[in-house]
């Protein structure tokens, strides 16, 4: 078992912060070159001898067919379910994608193998759950931190809904596959990680001002993952093996931190709310959806600029009083300003994103300028969360 999983399990069982941590069912995590070679033995140990590989044409070519070959050579029965794009649109976690999976899955399957990036994992997560079967994560790109998540975001009738389903029972992150990922997906994973520089501040704000749950050990796990990415940005930008390994480790660490915490607070703050806002706009317009991490990375630049300028000034000069939240802002003024100081400058986030080839302006995401301002004004309404964006829009601006 990999040290990341051991660390997460230790926090889940030993942390005495008072928060009710979630136990991790996952019992195997392999990360490295040839990590996939551990899979046949794992399946035999568990008696999971009939598998369905879920992939798309690209991920099947890079990884799926090798996995199928490896398993068949070890006496495991393999069914392939290759998901297709919908006309000109990319594969989405929606009714069409799920329909393909339900039709393509073999009835006698013991376990599903998600061989792909975020969308393949979301589809496999919800379908396996509905079939009452476990699934195993085999990421082919270090593009998101949600591989180990329980939540499956699915688009139904054009609207995104997140269903609580199941986490994978095991994860095999093979660097032979991951190092072949397109640069845009590496940049997206890096963007999703940089998002923690504002999500961790929002989490502390929500705990301080609104008594939302908090765990120092989970905070530390997520913060370490972020620091690792920022310190090794050059290697990640070079897409060399060490860079891809570190980014993958950071994404897995962030995902496990969320899993044991049982809520998305550590990894998702106002920058993710902006990203969700844009995602819904793209769904309505039918435009090509930019990668999750590409939106999050750019949103992190905007939130950093907003927090370090307007929010900082408002907090410094804020005179309102009355509601419990307003009183709390008064009481914690100094601490709030200190938290804002821990956020990297927007220009530094931009430089890091640029070095990896990530989106750094609205045009890179094909995002209308009006949607940028609109999201900054309204995105906090999407989630019940006391972020600094919420405080700014609902309380500080009116003072
Ligand atoms: Zn994310
Ligand atoms: Zn704790």
Protein architecture, described:
By secondary structure, the protein is α/β, with parallel strands linked by helices. It has 2 domains: 3-181, Rossmann fold, CATH 3.40.50; 185-213 and 263-396, Dehydroquinate synthase-like, alpha domain (Up-down Bundle). It is 56% helix and 12% strand. The protein has helices spanning 3-14, 39-46, 57-72, 95-104, 118-131, 175-178, 183-194, 196-210, 216-231, 233-237, 241-261, 270-285, 292-317, 324-331, 333-341, 346-356, 369-378, 388-396; strands spanning 28-32, 50-56, 77-83, 111-116, 135-139, 151-156, 159-164, 170-174. The strands form 2 sheets. A 6-stranded parallel beta sheet has the order 1-8-5-4-2-3, sandwiched between helices. It has a two-stranded antiparallel ribbon with strand order 6-7. Strand 4, helix 5 (118-131) and strand 5 form a beta-alpha-beta unit. Helix 7 runs parallel beside helix 13 (292-317). The mean pLDDT is 94. The chain binds zinc ion (ZN) (2 copies). One zinc ion is lined by residues 15, 17, 19, 21, 215, 217-218. This is Glycerol-1-phosphate dehydrogenase [NAD(P)+]. Pfam families: Fe-ADH_2. InterPro entries: G1P_dehydrogenase_bac (IPR023003), G1PDH (IPR032837), Glycerol_DH (IPR016205).
